[in-house]
UniProtKB/TrEMBL annotation:
<keyword id="KW-0460">Magnesium</keyword>
<dbReference type="Pfam" id="PF03372">
    <property type="entry name" value="Exo_endo_phos"/>
</dbReference>
<keyword id="KW-0378">Hydrolase</keyword>
<dbReference type="GO" id="GO:0006281">
    <property type="term" value="P:DNA repair"/>
</dbReference>
<feature type="binding site">
    <location>
        <position position="253"/>
    </location>
    <ligand>
        <name>Mg(2+)</name>
    </ligand>
</feature>
<feature type="active site">
    <location>
        <position position="107"/>
    </location>
</feature>
<dbReference type="GO" id="GO:0008311">
    <property type="term" value="F:double-stranded DNA 3'-5' DNA exonuclease activity"/>
</dbReference>
<feature type="binding site">
    <location>
        <position position="252"/>
    </location>
    <ligand>
        <name>Mg(2+)</name>
    </ligand>
</feature>
<feature type="binding site">
    <location>
        <position position="152"/>
    </location>
    <ligand>
        <name>Mg(2+)</name>
    </ligand>
</feature>
<feature type="binding site">
    <location>
        <position position="150"/>
    </location>
    <ligand>
        <name>Mg(2+)</name>
    </ligand>
</feature>
<dbReference type="InterPro" id="IPR005135">
    <property type="entry name" value="Endo/exonuclease/phosphatase"/>
</dbReference>
<dbReference type="InterPro" id="IPR037493">
    <property type="entry name" value="ExoIII-like"/>
</dbReference>
<dbReference type="GO" id="GO:0003677">
    <property type="term" value="F:DNA binding"/>
</dbReference>
<dbReference type="InterPro" id="IPR004808">
    <property type="entry name" value="AP_endonuc_1"/>
</dbReference>
<comment type="similarity">
    <text>Belongs to the DNA repair enzymes AP/ExoA family.</text>
</comment>
<feature type="site" description="Interaction with DNA substrate">
    <location>
        <position position="253"/>
    </location>
</feature>
<feature type="binding site">
    <location>
        <position position="36"/>
    </location>
    <ligand>
        <name>Mg(2+)</name>
    </ligand>
</feature>
Length: 262
DNA sequence: ATGGTGGTTTAACCA
């Protein structure tokens, strides 16, 4: 079978219901993983999604903040929902398709402004969250799995618009990149997007604070698709739908896609 | 060093 998966930080699924519907209609991924739904689960507008064939959802909700959900045309059953670092936040959901593939959907803490856990508690929480992810994947090696989400870290020099200028900016500091690398290694995760598109600048997020986001192009690749080695080779057609950042009342993130032939 | 823009919820928090 072949299926296409997308991941998108939607920044309020209720405010942007129409954008989700538009993406489902025009791109029709089999599975769409959302982050920052900013909604309790029972207030996510499922009717429209269901009418387009997305009859299955697993997720974790929370009022005002965070929130992750997986919308699927294919049957999916919940298999886990972790609260790493015990933050009490809705930042993870995992579901399994009938073909045996497990999909982890993460919203890693953004980490605040200052990259110093001594003066900024949120930065420490981000590092602790990544360490907990690492330890969990080390304890039980994932197989036949895909990990997606807003990981809030742009690891490579060509994942940001200016490597030198961002070395002290949260999302691209060496300690964050190191933590993310350890998490990736612990699960033997393959960065599917970069395996597919190894060269060149690649961004999935552009700040709202830059009105000329398109021409300035000061982006970062914060949104990722990883897979375990047993299925990573089945992935192809990776892409980032940059045009979605230019839609009316957009999310500040663009959707990232990959297709798997299994 | 600062402020720039958004969402949720209505003052303050988060990104």
């Amino acid at each position: 079978m072949t299926f296409t998966l997308a991941t998108w930080n939607i920044n309020s699924v209720r405010l942007r219901e129409d954008l989700v519907l538009h993406l489902l209609q025009t791109e029709a991924p089999d599975v769409l993983c959302l982050q920052e739904c900013k909604s309790p689960l029972d207030k996510i507008p499922l009717e429209g999604f269901s009418a387009l064939g997305y009859r299955y959802m697993v997720g974790r909700g929370q009022k005002s903040y965070n929130g992750v959900a997986i919308l699927s045309k294919l049957p999916i059953r919940e298999v886990a929902a972790y609260d790493y670092a015990s933050l009490g936040h809705a930042r993870h959901i995992a579901g399994q398709l009938d073909n045996g593939v497990t999909i982890h959907n993460f919203y890693v803490p953004a980490g605040g402004d200052k990259p110093d856990r001594e003066v900024n508690e949120k930065f420490g929480q981000k590092l602790d969250y990544l360490t907990a992810m690492r330890d969990a994947f080390h304890a039980e090696a994932p197989e036949t799995s895909i990990l997606v989400g807003d990981l809030n870290i742009a690891p490579r020099e060509d994942d940001v618009w200016n490597h030198k200028q961002l070395l002290k900016v949260v999302s691209h500091t060496p300690i964050e990149v190191e933590h993310l690398g350890e998490t990736q290694d612990a699960g033997r995760w393959v960065d599917v997007t970069r395996a597919d598109i190894p060269e060149g600048q690649l961004y999935s997020w552009w700040s709202y604070r830059s009105p000329d986001w398109d021409s300035a192009d000061k982006g970062r690749r914060l949104d990722h698709i990883w897979a375990t080695p047993d299925i990573a080779g089945a992935a192809h057609s990776s892409r980032i739908l940059r045009s979605a950042r230019g839609w009316e009342k957009p999310s500040d993130h663009a959707p990232v896609f990959a297709t798997f032939d299994l």
